Every structure is written in structure tokens, then in C-alpha cells.
Amino acid sequence: MSEEIITTGAERRELISFRVGEQEYCVDIMAVREIRGWSPATTLPQSPGYMRGVINLRGAVLPIMDLACRLGMPVIEPTVRSVFIVVKAGDRMIGMLVDAVSDILSITDDLVQPTPDLACDAVRSFIRGIISIEGRMISEISLDRLLPEREALAA
Amino acid sequence: MTRTVLTVDDSRTMRDMLRMALAGAGFNVVEAVDGEHGLEVLSAHRPDVIITDINMPKLDGFGFIEAVRVDDDYRAIPILVLTTESDPAKKDRARRAGATGWIVKPFNPEKLVDAIRRVAA
Amino acid sequence: MDELEAIKVTFFQECEELLADLEGGLLAMQDGNDDGDTVNAVFRAVHSIKGGAGAFGLEPLVRFAHVFETLLDAVRSNEVPATPDLVVTLLRASDVLADHVSSARGLGVVDEAVSAAMAAELKACTDPNAAPAPAAVVEAPVFEAAPVAAAPAEALIGADDALDDDDLGFDFQPMTITIDEQAADVAAAAGNVWTVSIRPKSDLYRKANETALLLRELARLGPIEATLDASAIPPLDMLDAEAAYATWTVRLETEEDETAIREVFEFVDGDCDLEITRGEGLSADAALAALLAGETPAAIAAPEPVVIAEAPAPVVVESAPEPVAVAPVVEAAPAPVATPVAAPAPVAAAPAAAAKTQQIDVPGPGQSVIRVDPERIDRLIDLVGELVINQAMLAQRVGEYGIAPSSNLAMGLDELEQLTREIQDSVMAIRAQPVKSVFQRMPRLVREVASMTGKQARLVMDGENTEVDKTVIERLSDPITHMLRNAIDHGLESPEERKAAGKNPEGVVKLAALHRSGRIVIEVSDDGKGINRERVHSIAIKKGLISPELQLTDEEIDNLIFLPGFSTADKISDVSGRGVGMDVVKRSVQALGGRISITSRPGQGSTFTLSLPLTLAVLDGMVVDVAGETLVVPLAAIVESLRPKPEEVRPLGPVGSVLAVRDSFVPLIDVGLTLGYREASPPPTEGVVLLVEGEDGSRAALVADAIHGQRQVVIKSLEQNYQQVDGVAAATILGDGRVALILDVDAVISLRRREPPRPVEPTLIAAE
């Protein structure tokens, strides 16, 4: 009965949380296609530093993004625990390189708080909101902003 | 017993229209794309009634009707010709060739089935 | 009405084909090939469009097609001579017809004034004696076709509700038949008795009509009594099986009028003597009297029981309310008497045959076509691409184990490779299409451009059946359009200039497609004045595109027109202008791995040559190592590969160097540096040089660290999940499963020209 009361206000969603450096982030599970172990990527010339390159994902060319670098933190040194999370962002699929996957969260939207003002603009545009759960602070990634517009970078 | 109608027309649209109308009225439909093809299909399917266009490549409607009428096996099969408008000259030529009756395009399914009934035993 | 909508889709598809046939036929006539077959095919195309349009109630299309068809009918029966002028008119009419089709399809609007003027012109051609009438008046007679065509498709396909409820005549009709306006004789009330006397001629039977069926039809109008007067039947030994002797007298009680009765005999008009009188007819009485008197004419004339036993004449048929029930009774009667013996047999046999017959979609003679969703083929091609990659990966793994090439395993792998290639070729062949679909659109373009520029141009096409992958077909249309526009606008002279030069005032533009060394080549040539090299050269200098000191060959001068910012037209014309110069065309062609060039002969014309790969799905490339990365260089761009000797490398300026190749100097470009893979170039003599030729013909020496050899690779898009990357044409997947980038040679050359090497971002190095 109590659970029904919780879900009346908002839809229950599931999120996958992961670690980038010392911080925790998450994305909606509906956007996640798969999680794969790290494998070396082919470097892309003329690309921003957060683009690790491209890998072969069952015949498709998948760009790999260093999420730490994208969020303005030091680049990730890949280890055996490093993984990339394959997500669908708009009509594109990208792999996000993260340090480790933590767990799956089940939340309602009323647990999501707006991103505080003190965060820099770059970070704020990639963060959909902040979730406070069991004393942890988890930032939800806004996937549609992660990759640059196709034309913007080609110039 | 389901009756078989052979439609001979080089226009896919017209063949489809005929098929829709005839199949809807319970006829079995076989098709040919010109007169020559019509003669081939004729021997394979022995239709009860033939509906043929006049303007066709290879063998036109007139030639097709004449060819059907000189064959003892097929001479008694009623043939309806499709005419776009009541062109008396064309109609007369088709009749001289041996056409049993005619259908003026565009036809409605009723008119078509009616014409078949009038010539089919 | 789903089925009807589906047929409508078919109709418009067919229209496209018919319009292409029409234009093709007219162009053949223009080339002097106006034999009967061509004219007939042209006529049939318009006729079929009209027929289908009528079925869908597409009035404006029907009306225009009708006028067009009428003229074509006159042409094919030689009433109107097919002069060159007339064929030009017919071609223009075919354009208007195409507009009508598009409009009926909901894709565009017909210019009513143009259409009306064209219709008037066609009518004037059909009947030269008729005074040219203003368009509005001309429309009127065209409407003749309208009553037939006017009914919308729903009404035609639908049932009685399509009929006019106010017309009492229809309310009683058990069948829908055409009826004269004044026909509904309401006064012909119930209980009217008619006498119908039918005397069939032999022609009636020759056309597979039957008196029995006529009687059956009469019975649908009301109760009948039919009497056969067989007095005219000769003795059996004189009986002509083909002839007709009997006379039927029918007493009919019906509420229908005479028109309805005559309607029954519509198909046998002229094939029988028909008398229709109101009231009890005399002939029936006479026959009856004869019967009563025992003078059975048939019995007397033909004493043999063969004839009379089954058909005792006169036969009286009681009309049953259901025509179906009447039929068998009537059927038996006339057959032995008058109907040729052969007649009923096949009819009777037919149902048996019909029972065995399945409803089969009969394909055209000699052609069997399977329709496949293109997406399925695309998927198949993708899968075969995967197979090629997997096979390469497998071969590489096996190679790493050091297995001898003569071993069974290695030989089996070779066979697998062979098979894989064959499968790939076959699958690609499925998707290959003739360039016809693109070429078909060009005659109209040529006519329009010619009329816009005041030129006279005739298009000659060759190699329309040349096949190329679908991925390329879709990209051909734009460059061909531009080349043709350019050829007419800039290549051809005005008719006056041509006459003055002793040429035919009508210029010829040729569009040809052919296969040459694994590529498709499209040539657009004209017989115009050729390129004015002096002018082109001075414009290029004036616009600062080339240095005045530069010595150029004729060919190099011709190809200056592809330089960005070059336009020879003093004023930007409507036609070639449009803000799109040949430089843009060239760039888009290059993006597809293609080349375009022009050659010209003064006074004799110019030829554009466009070459493209046969497919954009696979590519032949050279696999090279650059700063630890594996890259693929398109083979088409490579002239040769060489190891430079120290004396061939000459420094030029502070950082640049050139390579001496025979007697020319070619700029050396370190690919690793240009793409930002490294910050300093190793000496070129330690690496390998690929001498490449850019699409503009300029050469460069690309420095790589090592060459791995040639390979056919499957092209993978970078843009699908990322975006275009400068210097990279696409990606592929190599035997080891890793992604390799395919180099965009032209972009690398221009990157090197444009800016000094960019320092590599440290993060990228850290990533490795």
C-alpha cells in the first residue's frame, strides 16, 4: 500500500549509476543499450579531447567519449574495471567511458533536485538534475547535450 | 461453379481494376498483358469469358479476337472488348473481328458483371 | 477502399513508366525512327494514361490526355504527318501531360493557361482547317469525354447510390445500362405486352452470341413466351452448321420501355433482324396457328429425329421469375436447331477447366519479376559486409598461428574468401540499377533549358542500361543536371551563331554512360563553340585564382572552370547561375570518391567526363601505417608508391619540403602531422611515399610509415553515430576487428595548404 502512495505523484524510473573519478553519475536505463569492457579505440583526428576515438560495435562505428574529460575533469586512465556504457542519444549511439558501474536505482522524479547554481555552465548543461539517495549524491546526465551538434564541429 | 474470366490489357492499372471488380463478383481471374500473351494464357486456362483491350503491343485486340475466333476450340468463348469511349469505328471493327460485346471504360463493377452475364452461358 | 487506393498507387507508377515510354518514343521519332510501332507505342502510352485516369475520375488529366490522344491517333493513321515541328509540339505536350499526372497525384499544380494553350495547339494540329479558337472555347468539345469520366472512382466502384435517384428509369432497372435522356417512358405502365421477333444471322453465332442468352435477358424484363419458327431450316443434308435459319417470336410482358428491350439486343445489333412491336404480335399468332394446324415446319423440313427429337418446334418457354431457372430450359432448345454444334462444347468444358485453375498473377511473357523491399537488400548487403570483415579476421588469426599456405586449412580459407567475394558481388548486383531512371528525367530538362536560353538543342542518350549501385544512382542526378545545363547554356551557340558558323542551327548534346576500369563514367558532350581559353585564362588571373606567370596546358585552362569562385557568364543567367557553380558540383562529386573534368576543342564543342565508383558500399584501398594508426588510402587516388632517395627530397621554405618526381616537384605531406597524430615528422626517407592525385589534378606526396598492401574494404559511415571529420572520408573495419579510417586525400591536401600543423592535444596521446 505504501508503495502505491509513493508512485501516485510521479512515474517510477530506473537509472544506472556509475563512477567517474570520485563522483557518481547516472543515466536513464531506457537509454542504455549495453555495457562493455574497455577496448582500445581508433583515434579520430581533428576532434575534441573528450573524444577517445571510435570502436567497432558489431559492424557499426561507435564513437567513444571520455565522460570525465567532457565534464571538465582529468581524463580517465583506463583500467580493467573501466567500462563504456553504450547509450542512445537522439539518433546516435555513443559509448561513454566511465570508471565503474555502481548499481541500478529505482526513483521517482520528485527525488530529482535542480542543479545548484554554483556549478559552472558547462557542467549544468550536461546535468539534468541531482538525486539524493541514502546519503549519496548522484547527478543525472542529460544525454541529448553530450555530443556536439553535427555541423557545429565540422566547421 | 466459379467462372474464369481472362482479362487482356497492357495497362497494369486496368488489369488491377478488372481483377478487383471481377474477384469481388466471385469470378476467377486470369490475366494477360497483350494479345500474344492472351493466346498463351487462353490455352492454359480455358476461360469462360474473355475481356480484352484494343490498343496493345505485339498483338492488338483486333488481332487477338480474330485469332481466338479461327480456333475451333475457342471460337465459342464470348469476348468483350474494352473501349474507352463509344468509338463506333473501333467497336465495329472489333465486332467484325468477332467480339461478342463491349464494355465502355470507365466501367463500374455492376456494368462489367452485367455485360459478362449477358454473354456468358 | 484500400484496394482501390492500392490500384491508384499502381496507376501512378504505371503513369511514370508510360510517360517515359511516351517521351522515349517521341525522341525516337525525332531521330527519324517513326515507324508504325513507335507511333503506336506513343499512342498507347497516352491512351493508357487516359484510361486509368478515367477510372479514377481524374477529369483534367482525362481531358488533356483525350486531346493529345486524338492527335496521336491522327498521326498513327497518317492523317497528320509527323513533321519535326509536330514532334517538338508532341514533346512539349508530353511535358504538360506529365504535369497533369503530377497534379493528379497531388504533387504540384498545372498551369491552366499553359495546359489550355497546349490543348488548343494540339487540336489545331489535329484539324488544321479548324479556326484556332480561344482556349476557353476549345475546352468545350473536350468535355465530350467528361460524362464518362466525370463519375468519381467511388461512384464507379460503388453500388446503386451512384445513380441519380430522380431518374425513375433507374428505379426499376435490375441492371445498370446506359439510357437515353428521354428514355424513361413512365407511361409504359404495368402489364404492357410487347412482341419481339428475332431472326438471327449467322454472324450472331460467329461472335459467340446466343439466342438462348438473349431470351434469358428478355426474361429478366418480365414473363416471356418464346416461339420458334423453324420453317426456314433446310433439310439436314443442306444444313449449314454456321448459318442461322430460325426465327424466334417472343411475347414479353414488362413494365420496361422499348429502349430497355432494345438494350438486350445491343451486342447483336445488325447481327439479327429485330422487330419490336407493342401488343400481341401477328407473327406469334401465325406461328401458333401453324402449330395448331399440325404443320410443324421443322418436322416437315427435317424428318430425321436428330434435329427434332430434342428440339420439338415450336418451343414454348414459360418465363420463371428467376432468370437462372429459365436458362437451362431455353438453352436446350435452340442448340440443335440453329446453334453451331461446336458452340456449347467449350463453354460446357470451361467450368471443369476453371475448377483446376488457380488465381495466378500472370507475369509478362518472358519476364519473371520478384518485388523485394529495398530495405531487405540493404540489410543483406550489410550482412555480407560483416561476412567479408569476419572472413578477413579469421584469415588474419590463422595467419598469426603460422599455418603453411599449402595446408588444408589455409586452402579452405582461400576458398572461403573466394566464395565471400562472389557472394558480395552477386548481392551488389541485386541492388544495381540501370542509370535509365536518372537519364529519363533529362530530355525534359534539356527542352526547358533550351527554351529558356533561346538555344535549339537535341539530346542524344547512350548507355542508359549501364548499371550501377543504388547508392551511386541517387547521387548522379545533380551533377548530370549541372553538366547538361552548362553544356546548353555555355556550350551551345545561338541558332544564328551556329548558322553563321556553318553548323546545323540545332545543337546536339550527348549524354552517355559506360563502365570503365571498375568505375562508371558519365559523359556530357556538346557540339558547341568549345571553351574560350583566352577568356577563361584572363578571368582566372583577374579573379586572382591563378598567378599570371603560371604556364598552363590547354587542358589545365579548360579545367579552371572548376575553381571555386569562377564563373564565365558576364551576367549570372537563370540557368547555369542559381548560385551553384561547377566548383560546387566538383566538390560534391569528389565527396563520393569521384572525378570530373572537361576537355574542349575550339569550334567543335566540349566534353564533361564524370567518373564515380560503382558503389559507395565498398572501396579498394591501400592499407598504411601512420604514427601507430592504421589508415586506408583510396586506391583510385594513388598514382604510385615509392621509397624516396635522400637526393629527391628538397626543403622549401622554413618547414616545407618537396619531392622530385622525374622532372617535376611535388609537395611532401606527412599524413601523421597533418592529421595531428604527431608533432614532428620523421625524415621522409625513412617512410614510404604515396604519390597521389587530387581531384583537381594536383599532385602530392603523402608520407606514411609503412604499407601493408591493397585490400577491398567495406565503407562504414562515421556520420551515423558521430559526424564528419576533416581529412577522413569514412571508416572501415579491418581484419583485427578494429576501426580504420579511410583517408580523404583531397581534404588532406587542402588541410596542409590551409594551415600549419596543429599541435596534438595531450589528452589524445594519453588515451593511447
From TrEMBL, chain B:
Keywords: Phosphoprotein
Signal peptide: none
A single BP term in Gene Ontology: phosphorelay signal transduction system
Keyword Aminoacyl-tRNA synthetase: no
Modified residues annotated as 4-aspartylphosphate in this record: D53
UniProt cross-references to InterPro entries, sorted A to Z: Bact_response_regulator, CheY-like_superfamily, Sig_transdc_resp-reg_receiver
PROSITE patterns in the record: RESPONSE_REGULATORY
Family annotation (SMART domains): REC
Entry superkingdom: Bacteria
Residue ranges of every copy of the Response regulatory domain listed in the record: 4-120
Protein name: Response regulator
Organism, as annotated: Caulobacter zeae
